[in-house]
């Protein structure tokens, strides 16, 4: 082991943190998190009881089932943004619509807390775009490409790699119509 090899001596927490940062960068992470955080108060408040001294205040309404459905859908859309980022625009628009629907249905959108979180999460999801991979730098024009060599440091003969990895091109399809008007002989 040389003292320059850093991969073997890293702490497992730094490796996990770097892996999480890579995972987080490949998807609309914050959009999913805000959408899920918006769903929790929307589905919690209609079923919660608040105690003010000796008085119990029940915030349940007749729309408790609607609030539960909206909250669960928002949490599901947040997880969808994380694990299926290809449908991020659909999930973002659906989260925005559910946040707007939660205002009349679910105690003013979870007392505006869930509404704001779901609205911001949906907007972040719609606006998120995957990053472009870094472009490879082209070789300077003055330099010749490297020569591929055999194990004995002998260069490949001319044309030895011709067509390697490139599929054979087929002849183009003949689109001319034959004398029978394009019909098959049997029909």
Task: Characterise this structure.
A hairpin with a 2-residue loop joins β1 (about 50) and β2 (about 55-60). The chain has a two-stranded antiparallel sheet with strand order 1-2. It has helices at about 10-25, 30-45, 65-85, 90-105, 105-110, 115-125, and strands at about 50, 55-60. α2 (about 30-45) packs parallel to α4 (about 90-105) and α4 runs antiparallel to α6. It has about 190 residues and is mainly α. Helix content is about 45%, strand content about 5%. The longest helix has 20 residues, at about 65-85. It starts with 11 loop residues before the first helix and ends in a 60-residue tail after the last helix. The protein is built from six helices and two strands; from the N terminus they run ααββαααα. The radius of gyration is 30 Å and the shape is elongated.
What layout of secondary structure does this protein have?
Blueprint: H1 12-25, H2 29-44, E1 49-52, E2 55-58, H3 64-83, H4 88-105, H5 107-111, H6 113-127
Antiparallel strand pairs: 1-2
